[in-house]
């Protein structure tokens, strides 16, 4: 009886594998179909803008001149956020995973995770009500003593609603993403690697530098790129913190705008060619995000050879 029941269990297992494999394949295909459908929708809706008379597009100089400042503003805000959030996030993750006592690390980990659950409009309200006014004296000081640097040229904004403020708000928003993912990767570092480094006389920091960071390199890049995607597409927080205006080289002057904030502020009242312009801007943001993710996958594939098994 044992020999007759074994094939039955094997057949059931193979059938389950086929069902699961088919479901996973269908889910993957569905994602590609949705992505392709979104791209086609954006392209079709944006075609009137690409074929319109340049004088009829906002700004009166064509879509290229209209979208260029928005693209630059989007990239500047995202870069500021990454420059601030990446070292802080990695440092906090290392503290939680390798330095903090167990009780403190658990509590701090919960707090970091809770930051990711706060709605973006709350961050925007905090930025406009507290952070922006608090930064006005700092901007005045930068304009006075560091104004010879183009990014700190005056006159400084009297409201604090600048690109630098928006970048700081974005940095706080993406900090939980970098910290949480990096922390999980750091905790997965093989203990044998860490113990071997310590046994050879390495300090804790030397052990982290030689064992933990190389192992987590691909994961850190993934967390940073995921955070970059959040920063590129953020709408309400940036729209609330930024003052509308043209592209400015200075980060402490009023002005600048991002693609997502431009769409969020103008889409409800848009119609006709203006609506097509905003959808075309969304298409540009879609392409930028897709390009960033493709570059991230390429970078990760170059460093994925280091792991706990083959390191």
Short recap of the structure:
With about 300 residues, the protein is mainly alpha-helical. It contains ten helices and no strands. The two termini are about 50 Å apart.
**Rg, Å, rounded:** 25 Å
Largest sheet: none
Using the coordinates shown, work out and report the CATH topology.
MetI-like fold
CATH homologous superfamily heading: MetI-like
- Low-pLDDT segments: 1-5, 306-311
The SSE string, one letter per element, is HHHHHHHHHH
- In the CATH hierarchy, what is the architecture at level 2? Orthogonal Bundle
Counting helices, strands and paired strands, the structural category is mainly alpha
The global form is globular
- What is the highest CATH level, the class? Mainly Alpha
Structural descriptors:
single chain; 311 residues; mainly alpha; MetI-like fold; 0% strand; disordered C terminus; membrane
